[in-house]
DNA sequence: CTGTTAGCGCATTCAG
DNA sequence: CTGAATGCGCTAACAG
């Protein structure tokens, strides 16, 4: 029972501090809001003492109620299990601190219902803006926010019918870069593996970029195909196997290209099951998203500028919160190719053609 | 410009709804608080209409200000990059929803300063309780909360000098289980690899359990040693190498036992660097924490009951928020051994002794 | 430079 | 069953 500050449970309020300091609430408020220089040093000292003595902390709720702004911004994350999201989050957090916002993180755990619920909750807490990286929120749910004057910025994926700021990877260029790498390493058959992409714009873009790039290369040089893989039902994995076998029978060098980390992991697990620990010598795998195990597996990837994406999202949000009225912007940041052993010219070739 | 609800930016307040429904604010408030049966069906309908028309959402801030409780609970996470934390988080979130709380997630990103800052911020937002999984918060920072009447429950690690509810893995039993497994598989030299553990109670417990268990086994049968690995400065990795080499020269079967996932990953990366993709055939590795790549690497682990830990933490918190005044509790949940190839009797034995 | 006053949006007495 | 009044903790005019 050391310093038992009469602080009997209830936290001190501004009134308590005023009384303790022998002054009015206004002065306390002024002090809190850094209206320094407007207070006599003598008063300021008394205030500081009182605050310390009572361990006073201004109540943000009351503050927000009065001012109309509570410095809260919502961050809706589809899946924290995905390292991509966590990394973006870190950028968001850092930027939030820099601007003085408190990020309210909502994790929808891939549940569309939860997404909607969280969005409502955020409304209810009167967040000043929302960063959304969601799976299935519809245009109308979000529209209700924007109509209410709450800016929204989308991360990674666009939402059909909604015009707002959006920031994410330059998917087209990322895919192009990856394919160029694969081709330069001598692969002549590419299999793009992606989750059902109709609903998710980033997946759609990646798939389109894949087809376009392959097309531009000319079928004669490189052939490509897209495989849709549903993580909850991986029967399409057998199709992948078939493709691999066929390619290798024809002495073609095939490489799998996973559209993101979850897909890459699923595919890797399967390949390991089928080919044993040495699977990497049998088939080349690369992916978008540079997850922690990529290094362990020696897998080539395109690393997303996740941190910057998060930062940028907050910047956009901040501008709009501050009242900027500009047309919806789109910020596409470049990815970075991380070359590892999985796609080296030597690897996974049934017969070694080429190489000095 | 479809349905442009006069809702000119500003969100509707309870007063607006009252006016729209042609009644007083009290009735609206009653409706919102589910004081059903106290309102004539006719009035209720009018209210529902008005709410829908204005797209009204009660302001939680104002609500909390008045009631003195805002249903916010803080969750301080040391490192979201660690899958352990994310999993615990999921349990926390689920339980929060069940009890009607809104979890305010704070990610300290392993920065002690941030931890303290976030804790203050949470105070400021008048959270009703806090779940803490932190790296370096001191007893006094937390004490300031509890003294303010805000319950705190610790996850995974205890904080010196602070008596509160705590929930985590039953470290002692988990380590014992792991060692039993290793020994049953014929390993006779165990190397426990752990991050600096003086400050972190769970690491300390694991290390102690390791030594105790080995001791109880009798030095004649199995020998063990602890290696401290600092992730930011892995020069101790050479010591690990030396131990491995020595053991193998003496024809002893050595196994590495990582105290958690980050350590396991660092060690695995190193072993792969040193021994190539086949490293698993050279040295056995197991760990506490069943991360996503464990399956890919075929590594034996002890899976923590992360989800339950999160749930349990919220339960404790809820009870205290509801006013329970009981002595500090400690809830140690059992881990689950997940056996994979890395510790099979065959693996990583320099000379195969034993096995049918 | 400093104190007084009036709400922010809502829940709660307390009277109809 | 319903509504008018009061105040939660704080800021923002307004006066001294």
From TrEMBL, chains A, B:
Gene3D superfamilies: 3.40.50.2300, lambda repressor-like DNA-binding domains
Keywords: DNA-binding, Transcription, Transcription regulation
Entry's Gene Ontology molecular function annotations: DNA-binding transcription factor activity; transcription cis-regulatory region binding
Keyword Transcription regulation recorded: yes
Domain HTH lacI-type: 12-67
Organism: Caballeronia udeis
Name the record gives this protein: LacI family transcriptional regulator
One of the Pfam families matching this protein, by short name: Peripla_BP_3
Highest rank taxon of the organism: Bacteria
InterPro entries: HTH_LacI, LacI/GalR-like_sensor, Lambda_DNA-bd_dom_sf, Peripla_BP_I
